[in-house]
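Tip: read the tokens left to right.
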């Protein structure tokens, strides 16, 4: 498994990260023994990047047990920001919550430091200056080594980077965002921003909550997938007419090249500017299937068809600006005054 740099510093992570939201999760997760076995199988395969969050129930506690004796091999990432209690300081990106959440995560993980501390979602009610300063304090105290953003609008991410530069504070090393063959909207604003600012992309939901496994069809709720067990508001981003059309294309292409739809969807990520892809599993068989995606090569003609079938629709101002840029560079036929 390839090891890549996340951000401009010395942080090195594997191209596949192991997401642990399923660990200890009721109804659609896995039990503690299975979760620990999943971590060890992933580490044996050459992975080093574990992703959890304080809002994932028992996940941090189980991760802590799983990496005991292996801590030096693991880049351990967790998140804070989603509600974990009824109080105002039990959520968000204010100083009070970030500090208390960090202490709680350190305790549950059984570690002295967190390698990557993600802001789980942008908190628009808290000034970015407060968030950036609080994260910088945690870095200076040695409790956190790197900080990152998750689920930020592009302009807010750029503003946070500017605030860090102005204050001389720790900068985000990357963005964790939903990116897959159904949801490619990060390509409009975020990917150019990440490239220009030197940040890495860690993609979550590469299988679109199971839509790209080939198991989900309209009107059915199959067992073994998150969408089959429960639905949350943002599942509408993938479980729609466009999502089912893309899933059908993926099933067809996977059959053509002789792999599973999930493996094809994960292999597609390697063709994109993604530093690390978060995979999730409830069983060893699911993990092995995901890991086998590293052996899948997508033929150029199949990749071209997938990209064409899933490309973003034209939009303003992006498409307009792209056309005019072509005129300015003389690479696209234009109009003359």
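Filled-in amino acids:
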């Amino acid at each position: 498994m390839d090891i890549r740099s996340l951000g401009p510093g010395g942080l090195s992570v594997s191209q596949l990260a192991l997401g642990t939201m399923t660990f200890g999760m009721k109804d659609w997760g896995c039990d503690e023994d299975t979760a620990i076995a999943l971590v060890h199988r992933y580490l044996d395969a050459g992975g080093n990047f574990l992703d959890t969050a304080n809002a994932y129930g028992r996940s941090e506690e189980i991760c802590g047990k799983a990496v005991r004796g292996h801590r030096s091999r693991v880049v351990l990432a967790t998140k804070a920001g989603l509600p974990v209690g009824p109080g105002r300081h039990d959520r968000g990106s204010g100083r009070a919550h970030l500090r208390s959440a960090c202490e709680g995560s350190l305790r549950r993980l059984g570690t002295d430091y967190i390698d990557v501390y993600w802001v789980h979602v942008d908190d628009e009610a808290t000034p970015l200056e407060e968030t950036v300063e609080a994260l910088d304090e945690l870095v200076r105290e040695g409790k956190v080594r790197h900080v990152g953003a998750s689920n930020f609008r592009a302009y807010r991410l750029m503003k946070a980077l500017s605030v860090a530069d102005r204050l001389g504070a720790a900068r985000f090393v990357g963005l964790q965002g939903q990116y897959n063959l159904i949801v490619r909207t990060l390509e409009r604003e975020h990917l150019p921003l990440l490239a220009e600012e030197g940040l890495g992309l860690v993609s979550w939901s590469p299988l679109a909550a199971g839509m790209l496994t080939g198991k989900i069809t309209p009107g059915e709720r199959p067992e073994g997938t998150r969408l089959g067990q429960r639905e949350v508001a943002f599942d509408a981003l993938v479980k729609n007419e466009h999502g089912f059309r893309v899933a059908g294309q993926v099933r067809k292409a996977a059959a053509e090249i002789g792999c599973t739809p999930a493996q094809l969807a994960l292999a597609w990520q390697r063709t994109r500017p993604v530093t690390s892809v978060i995979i999730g599993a409830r069983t060893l068989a699911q993990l092995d299937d995901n890991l086998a995606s590293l052996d899948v090569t997508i033929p150029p003609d199949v990749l071209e068809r997938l990209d064409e079938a899933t490309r973003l629709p034209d939009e303003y101002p992006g498409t307009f600006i792209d056309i005019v840029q072509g005129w300015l560079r003389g690479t696209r036929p234009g109009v003359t005054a």
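The first strand starts at residue 3 and ends at 5. DSSP finds twelve helices and ten strands in the chain.
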